[in-house]
Amino acid sequence: MASDIAAGLSFLRSTAEETYAEPPADRASPKRKKGEGWPVLPPERALELGLPFKEILTQGVRDALFRTFSAFYLPVRAALGVPPPVGWYGQQDGWWIAYLDVLRRLGLAAPKASGELGAWEALARSAGWWWPGDDRCVLVERPARVRLKPVPGSWHDELRLECVEYRDGWSVTGVL
Predict the structure, then answer these.
(1) Of 145, 151, 143, 142, whose CA–CA distance to 71 is shortest?
(2) pLDDT tens digits, one per residue of 30-46
(3) Which of 40, 39, 99 is nearest to 69 (CA)?
């Protein structure tokens, strides 16, 4: 079961990348050496310099959301004291779900498995973390309260975890 879900997830992500179509640029992209990455810039500056739109979305949506979601789920996972099982999914997947949704809404990518993207969106909105097994699936409810605070100096209004509380009284505070 877990390997089937992982394979479907890999297919969903890869088809979004394969079907991506860069919108026409109004200026030439800056030159860079082979194998050299794009500079990490605030979106306004990246647009001014003519970075590819996909790179601007990668930095300004995907990477920024990943850092924010990581600030939430990594401390909670560490506080559990044991590593989660392989195939651990849930709210922490919101960063890539949102990124694919942005690509889809802008008409820049059409994942062949867009129906599956809808299922991932529904799961991330309606439940906490979950992991599938052959005989059962463990599903955790969403936290009762999450407090985040801005990361000073971040370009994309990133957030840092201050406290997460669950309805059973379990919480993680002062992690970062």
Answers:
(1) 151
(2) 888 888 889 988 888 88
(3) 99
